[in-house]
Specification:
With about 200 residues, this protein is α/β, with parallel strands linked by helices. It contains nine helices and eight strands. It has an eight-stranded parallel beta sheet with strand order 3-2-1-8-7-6-5-4.
Length: about 200
């Protein structure tokens, strides 16, 4: 089955990826500024529900309906983008027939410059990179990643890191249309909350 994959990741600017185990978590993350949602082993029902409310968010997961998947054979079969752990895995995937522009490489900050110079799209976990430095460290690292041209950052501190990325993008002269996106997500959040309220009323 062909997935809803995108040929490019969210644009403009550095994308923000966070994990969500439920629809409520995903919508809250989107409202806070996430542009990529990691659902892990979440199945097609969860992916479809998230996509219906957040159509502009890239969904990462292990199901073939996700936009971004961790398995090369699944990426080849579904047309999704591939997320690889390191350049070696990315090179192997390219050899197996996945175009480089469909590969996102997870890379720690220490190897970031070399990976960027090699032309790969990159994902950096700013929480891990700023271990022991708290939210402020993740914010600072995210801003540095934005300046370096990182494709996406991973964090659990969505609102704070989103603000840091937006500020860095503004300084670079490419402000993200943040309020437009968040208003749209806010409307989706309202529809989701309203739907839950209606279901509750009917059960009384």
């Amino acid at each position: 089955m062909k997935s809803h994959s995108r040929t490019v990741l969210p644009d403009p600017g550095t994308a923000l990826l966070t994990e969500a185990g439920s629809l409520d978590d995903a919508v809250a993350a989107g409202f806070a500024g996430a542009t990529m949602i990691e659902v892990g082993a979440g199945g097609p029902a969860l992916i479809a529900a998230i996509r219906s409310l957040l159509p502009d968010v890239v969904i990462s997961g292990a199901d073939e309906s996700a936009d971004l998947v961790p398995d090369p054979s699944l990426a080849l079969r579904s047309g999704a983008r591939l997320i690889c752990s390191g350049v070696t895995a990315a090179e192997k995937a390219r050899y197996e027939g996945i175009a480089p522009d469909r590969i996102l490489v997870t890379v720690p900050m220490v190897h970031l410059d070399r990976t960027l110079r090699a032309g790969w799209s990159t994902l950096t976990d700013v929480d891990a990179g700023a271990a022991g430095l708290g939210v402020a460290g993740a914010e600072a690292l995210a801003a540095a990643c934005c300046w370096l041209g990182v494709t996406a950052v991973r964090t659990r501190h969505v609102a704070q890191v989103r603000q840091s990325l937006d500020a860095a993008e503004a300084v670079l002269g490419r402000p993200r249309p943040a309020w437009t996106v968040r208003r749209a997500i806010g409307r989706a959040f309202g529809r989701a909350a309203g739907g839950r309220g209606q279901r509750k009323d009917k059960s009384v």
